[in-house]
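The step that takes the researchers longest sounds almost clerical: writing a folded protein down as plain text. The outcome of that step, for a single protein, is printed below.
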Amino acid sequence: MGDTTSIHSSIFGKTPKEKLGTLSCISLIVNKIIGTGIFSNPSPIFQYTNGNVGLFLSLFLLGGIIIFCGLLIYLEFALNLPFKNGGELNYLLRVFKFPKGLMGCVYSFSIVLLGFSSGNSYAFGKYMMYAYTGRHDGDSIDDRLVKLIGVGCISFCIFLHIRYPNQGTRLFNFLGVFKILILVLIIGIGGLVAIGGLKGVAKTDNFTDVWKFHEDMKPNSYSISVALLEVIYSFKGWENVNYVLNEVDNPYHILTIAAPLAVLLTTSLYFLVLIAYLIVIPKEEILSSGVLIAGIFFNKVFGESITSRLLPILISFSNLGNVLVVSYAHSVVNQELAYNNYIPFSSYFQNLNHALLLHWIITVLILVLPPSTEIYEFIVNLYIYPGTWINILLTLGLIYLKLNKRKEEWGEFNPIDHSKSLLEDLEEDSDINSIESYMGDEEVREYTPRRRHSEHDHLLRVSTADLSEATIPKKVISVPFIGVAIFLIANIFLALFPFVPPPNYKSLDIPYWMFPVIGTGVLILGAVFYFIRPLIYEDSEIRYEDDYKYL
């Protein structure tokens, strides 16, 4: 079976013994969703809608509905399968059983090569330079320094996860709470302005005629499509906890309560922040200004002298939180991929510290190698794009499972019970008291039921503290077909639209088609690796999944 050591066990002496609690899991989601987007993206999206407040808010509402459908789909997969690390990897393997290992290789190249933290590392460097210079225009900043600071950002995060992992968890918990408080502050200020409670700041008339276009000029369909694309991208991160379920203290509670709460909280705050922006900032200023919309907002309230320094620091902290949680979660997935030889040099990357270094290498290369102009948008698009194809495959797979519930033993026909069945298996297959005496009360047990799970489930574990709850039956979630259809249509749009040339297209340093071509090419490269994997590993070393029924 190979190395099945938990990343929390003593063999990795620098990793935490603590499992992730509710706050940490909420922070994993909040930190990934809230990066730079809410402080900057609303401005260009508002411009794409030609200042139509109703259309602008409707697009964000639609985006929230789409990502909540995605969350429910991921929850249905997670609650029908053993709780383990890997996220989409496990869901793909459950749906696409043959050829064995193909989807694992395809997914591995996507998450390893393109699951980097380069975008927010670069943004961290940019906003730190904004704070240092007091200027918010990119022309005044040396891009080489921005990249150097970005390398320092990802290096700090990786070092923290390796050397001081408990402190790393506490830091991203703090930053998650910090981000929420910043958004609450913006909402509170907007509320005060709305009721006339803030002297010197007048309420705008943006809500007088919410469906009116600026100068009665309607946007074209391409602009609306780009706006929707930007909106959906801004919600990326709701799936982050699914990557690390083995490291979670109570996966069922996290999946059914904490994860939906985090997504609902974040999307609600997003929407209220947008309203606050519109209360304080006249639409003409949003349409004509190229600076951060949050910069305009704080200038109105606090004045430019404070905003020019303070706001970039706040945003850079937001970027740091994103890099912390992405580097952690994706490295855990890298480790999971290495367990089954889905990546080259798998035996080396089965150590979490080495998996963290792999994430660092890819992030630095993507951060440094592309040309400076247009780098941020390109990196962000390249990071997000392959996930749209993965989501399409998962959604189609879920439709198949739903239509063949009895045959596939899905939903109410699924015999897996995350609590009761585990207790029965443990009592039948092992002496619990001897395990406790051997491993200690605080150690995490690793267990693979002989009858139900393949060797791919070697990280399925139950702690001694959880056994008292193991007699409580758990239920699964069944997403309505309308929710599945919404998410499928949205991802087909996200996958195909980037290939459409924009109107009046002019050649740029990075062509518009570059990121979808590279993103799709990496998935194809993973399929190629599947065919050459037998040449790299002997048959005895390749871990094929023997039984996907309960995986």
In short: The CA atoms of residues 143 and 372 lie 7 Å apart.
